[in-house]
Each structure stands twice: as C-alpha cells, then as structure tokens.
Design a protein that fits this description.
- The structure is a homodimer.
- By secondary structure, chain A is mainly alpha-helical.
- Chain A has 2 domains: 58 residues, Arc Repressor Mutant, subunit A (Orthogonal Bundle), CATH 1.10.10; 174 residues, Tetracycline Repressor, domain 2.
- Chain A is 75% helix and 0% strand.
- The first copy, chain A, is built from 13 helices and no strands.
- Chain A is elongated.
- The N terminus of chain A is likely disordered.
- Chains A and B meet through helix 2, helix 8, helix 9, helix 10 and helix 11 of A and helix 2, helix 8, helix 9, helix 10 and helix 11 of B.
- The first copy, chain A, binds a DNA duplex through helix 2 and helix 4.
DNA sequence: GTCTATATCATGATAGAC
DNA sequence: GTCTATCATGATATAGAC
C-alpha cells in the first residue's frame, strides 16, 4: 500500500527533491564556499540521498550553475524590464543616474526581502562569489548575463555624456564592489559595525541599507573626476558638441 | 664532502624554504582560494618537500595566517605611522577626509607596486579573502588588526562631526568593498572593462587606479545623507554645539 | 526516482630513516 | 631539516538492485 502511494507521488517528490537540493546548496555554498562544501553535506542537509545530486544535475559544478540560474534569470529579466520601462517613459531623454543605479542595484537589494527569490541567503552567496576564486562560476556569470551589464553601461554613457567612458566603467565596477561587499555580510562587517554605533540604531535593518548604499553609490558615481580624466572629459564633451 | 656543505648551509636553506613556501602559497591561494589549493600544489610549486609545510608552519591554517601576517604587519604599522604623522602636523585640528582615506586605502594600493611586499599578488589575495568564506582567516584578520580600523574610524568621526557615526561606519564599509573588489581583479572586472574603452586608454595601469578610486571613495564618503540619516545628523550636530 | 555499495582518487598529516 | 612512505579520511562519481 505504501508502495502505491510512493509510486503515485513520484513526479511530485522528484520536483521536491530538486528544490530541496538547490535550497541546501544555496545555503551551504553561501556559508562555506564552493570548494568548502561537499555533496555529502548538501544531500545530508536536504534530507535526500547522496546519489540524487548527480541524478538531477549531473555534477557538482552543474548544481552550482543551477543554483545561480534559478535566481539570476529572474533578476536580470527584471533589470531589463525596468530599463525598458524607464526609457519608454523618458521621451527619448537620457535617464537620470539615480534611476539607472536603482534599476541595477536597487532591484538586486530588494531581492533580500523576497524569500521566495532566495532572500538574503542568495544575495550573500552572490556577493561572495563575485570575488571568489572558483573560475568556472565567474566565467559562467560573466557570459550568461553580459548583455544586462552592457545595456546598463550604455544607459550610463548617455546619462553622463561629459564623463569619459573609461571612467564610467571603472565607477560601475567600484559600485559593484561596494554592493557585493555590503551584501556579502562577512564577519569583518560585523566587527566594523559593532563599534561606536549609537544605542537603538539598528544597523542591520535592510530597509536602511538600500538608501544608505544608494547615497554612497551616487556620490561616488558623480564625484569630481581625477585630474588626468578631467582633461579627457573635456575632449569627449567637445567631440559630442 | 657534500654532506659537510649541506650541514653548513642548513640555517640558510631553512629560511629559504620558508620563504619559498610562503611565496608559492600566496600565489596559489590568490589564484584558487584556500580550499581550492592543496599542500601538494604548494610544495610542488615551491620545489620543496611535502612534509616541509607541517615542519615549518604546523598546519595549512597556520601557513595561511603566516601568509597574511608577513604582509599585513608592515601595512598596518605604516598606516598607524601615517596617521600619527598627519595628526602631529595638523595642530590639533581634525584631519581632512582625503588625508584619512589616503592613509588607509592609498597605503594599501601603493603596495601593488612594491614587489618585495607582495605586490599585486598579495593585494588580490587580500581583496578576495575579505569576502571569502574561510571563517578562520576572516576572524584572524579582524582580531589581529582591529586597532587600526578603530583609529581610522575615530579620525573620520572627528573629520566629519555632523555625519552620524553609524553612517560613517557604513560608508567605511562601502569603501572597503569598492577597494577589495577593485584589487581582487576578477575576470568579471576584465569583462566589464573590456567594453567600450577608448583605444589607447590603458585601463589596467595601477597609477591611474589610485586617483580613480580616491575620487570615487571621497565622493561616496561625502555624499548627501539619506533622508532618515540627515535628521540624525542634525541632532548630532546640535549635541556637539 | 531512489537507494546501497563501492570504485577511484586526492587530501592533510605524521612516523621514522637519514 | 629533509626525505620517503604511509595512514586515515573524505572527496566526486557511478553501477546496479529495487
């Protein structure tokens, strides 16, 4: 009797097993890194059999890719959708830098509150992975979502016509770093923030992180240019005129 | 005869072996991470025997700590020395934010040109490790050099009396992230910077990275406060007056 | 689809000769 | 201090019964 129920639920349990593995892998990769997490830990945590990972995903590397794809496909479609929407509403005018930054980084940070999209766990995993040494996964991310970066970069070029393009690319990069580190939420962070914070100020609240980060990013993006770049900026502005 | 020469050089070869192991470990940990690097790779690369790591350092973890200590002791002494010097020359007045940022992050970045202090290899290792999941090493770093962060944080509090302290701590954290990511120099960086850079513009030149990063960091540090924090800033300024 | 059992290999660490 | 040889463990992956 139990066997019949088991057979009847085979399809459902299959899907369930896949998700359970992905959830456990996401959590463990976040906490201990790719190389620091074994398939025994993952399947143990997920409550499934050791062989299930290879059956459902083929290998540990393929599992890692699927962990990211599950979240990033949605995120990057959302980013594209927001850019489409903002550009449709701007009447052909360049967007404001704050709109672009919010579309890219704000959309990312708002995932932290969305448990069904991975929430803070996935965000931290992503933040850490961007500087982690597992080459195959950085390559995968760069290739899979290059088109999104490209469109946002182009939007920034239009929004800041008198800033040299090289400078914008660098600043985009600095913004990525500040954001990654903030969401990675390492213990180094905790040590820093534990000092000298006024009583009652809840540093850890995510709804405050977003405006804090936004101010910082925009301040950096629009900062005065370094001297050698300011000269290039004048040339670029002259060409455009 | 050969045996006598060997014995006579024992001390020298000892030191040499230690340094060779540290150099190889620094390079490999940077490229593949702590968990992704085996002691066989390290000793193979260093051209020494496998057992030498445990003889000289005791364990893989202790080796990793020594890799960092070798570079960071100097860096953090230099940071302290610069702060002492600047404060001695300011006549009791608060320092300028740009001085403080240069003392902390400029001193770090200038290590990239100093091959005998680890150069770019160590800088990248450090940048990656700050978000890496190896807990023991982040704990080690946080405890070992906490006093330096504390002094720089205090200097920033004095330099920016009407910015809430919590805000300064966060912005310090964002600056750390932007810098880590920039020096980690992942492939994600390379992909980003390969797009749309004008011909002849050498994006990779380190002497340009420093002023670029400085402008960005200072722009972020001095950015307008987010609304909720601006209110706190007024209170803080009122208390100080 | 799920399980047990196992093949195959790499890891960190150490004992003991030299 | 350096070497060889080896231990004990844990890794990914798979074969084959159910």
């Amino acid at each position: 009797m139990a066997a019949e129920v088991h057979e009847g639920m085979a399809e459902v349990r299959n899907i369930d097993t896949r998700e359970r593995i992905l959830d456990a892998a996401e959590r463990l990769f976040m906490a201990h890194g790719y190389d620091g997490t074994s398939m025994r830990q993952i399947t143990g945590d997920a409550g499934v059999n050791l062989a299930a990972v290879n059956y459902h995903f083929g290998s540990k590397e393929a599992l890692m890719q699927e962990v990211f794809r599950r979240r990033l496909d949605w995120l990057n479609e959302e980013r594209m959708r927001m850019l489409d929407e903002m550009e449709a509403g701007s009447g052909g005018q360049p967007l404001k830098p704050s709109q672009i930054v919010d579309g890219f980084f704000g959309t990312l940070l708002r995932m932290a509150d969305d448990e069904k999209r991975g929430g803070l766990t996935f965000l931290r995993l992503l933040g850490r992975t961007l500087t982690e040494p597992s080459e195959f996964i950085r390559t995968f991310l760069a290739e899979e979502y290059a088109h999104v970066l490209e469109r946002y970069k182009a939007a920034l070029f239009r929004a800041l016509p008198d800033v040299p393009k090289a400078e914008i690319v660098w600043r985009f990069h600095f913004m990525l770093g500040a954001t990654s580190y903030a969401i990675a939420g390492t213990d180094a962070l905790r040590v820093v923030t534990d000092w000298g914070i006024e009583e009652g100020d809840s540093v850890d609240r995510l709804d405050r992180l977003l405006p804090r980060l936004m101010s910082f990013l925009l301040g950096g993006l629009r900062a005065p240019l370094p001297q050698f770049a300011a000269a290039e900026g004048e040339q670029q502005a002259a060409r455009a005129a």
